[in-house]
Amino acid sequence: MVRQPAINAQNRTPLSIERIIEAALQIVDGQGLGRLTMRRLGDALEVEAMAIYHHLPRGKEQLLDGLVTHVAAAPADAHGYAGWRDALRGWARAYRDRLLAHAGVLPLLVTRRNPAALATTTASLREILRQGGVPEAGAAVAAHSLLSYVIGHAALEVRGTGPGAAGAAAAAGEPEGPVDWEARFLAGLDLMLSGLT
Amino acid sequence: MVRQPAINAQNRTPLSIERIIEAALQIVDGQGLGRLTMRRLGDALEVEAMAIYHHLPRGKEQLLDGLVTHVAAAPADAHGYAGWRDALRGWARAYRDRLLAHAGVLPLLVTRRNPAALATTTASLREILRQGGVPEAGAAVAAHSLLSYVIGHAALEVRGTGPGAAGAAAAAGEPEGPVDWEARFLAGLDLMLSGLT
DNA sequence: ACCTGAACACCGTTCAAGT
DNA sequence: ACCTGAACACCGTTCAAGT
């Protein structure tokens, strides 16, 4: 008979960076960035908080870097699209969904941390533009512009859809009614893509 | 002879919300958001930290809201520009400068806090577009798109110009050399403005 | 190798007290 | 009205110790 894993002591699956990041993302998505605490994260992993430092020696800094990379590193892929314009549009929609699904990470994406997290994403955008015939210099500009627009729009949307945001906006003399954010995003996206010759 | 203000006891000018916000902004700009502490802010104002709560009953939350409003509420003004396109371009340049000068506040601008802080800014953009002959619905889209682009680009720029960012990007296989952020910003801006009929 | 316990230097905030 | 001092419940992190 095969040895069963011991029931006593440490039979639970050991910690790993992946499990830690996953648990942290769940806390941020569910309770907000402000409630992500090493101690709370330890609780979620059924471990003492200090055990986390064994896997992330740089501590919380490294944890937040991991969250940003996990959310932001999503390269564009032209496969299955009719043309490069469609490919960029498809990527932009998917990337926006991703950012909104993890809105709590958005402030971290804006901070100076983890400068390389967006490198693969921007490189993939430039590549699609280059293959579409956009000259090198223009492709770099367009890739950054597109990414700026998507990130910025997600930021405005998160701000504008917070609890009580509509009421506060109305109180501030904001004349607009409720905003259809997706429609507005797509309209602005086409406005931007149409600028690319 | 006129009574001199007493030298003893409390002759220092009393606290005010303006002085508090100003001191806080100076700490954030000089040392980063992470070092903005009620106790440190108290030190800068030569006051015990707890005195701040007398002027900001909602505490640090209210302080951060104040910072966001102070930095982000900068309406566009068409006066002195040849046309609405020039006015928008001029506003975008000035707004980018403002965001970069207070880069530490950028993460706060992205968070859900203070939903009304951008209302006057977007309203002024819509107004310029409306007066330029852009129809109502298109003006709302264009105003949001423009603001998204400027905020998003500033975010990418702050990320990309942090200490050691170039080295980290190169290590991640980023093929680009040093980026001329201003030139890239202006090129993308024209790309976006040209999309507005 | 992997985790725990106790400890340290900080936080934001409350509350009673001073002037 | 405006500020202080002491206290409370939290933080992130170090470090020696356990298994």
From TrEMBL, chains A, B:
Domain HTH tetR-type: 20-65
GO biological process, one term: negative regulation of DNA-templated transcription
Domain of life: Bacteria
Alphabetic keyword roster: DNA-binding, Repressor, Transcription, Transcription regulation
Gene Ontology terms, MF aspect: DNA-binding transcription factor activity; transcription cis-regulatory region binding
Pfam annotation, one family: TetR_N
Transcription regulation is among the record's keywords: yes
Occurrences of domain Tetracycline repressor TetR C-terminal (ranges): 81-159
Name this polypeptide is given: AcrR family transcriptional regulator
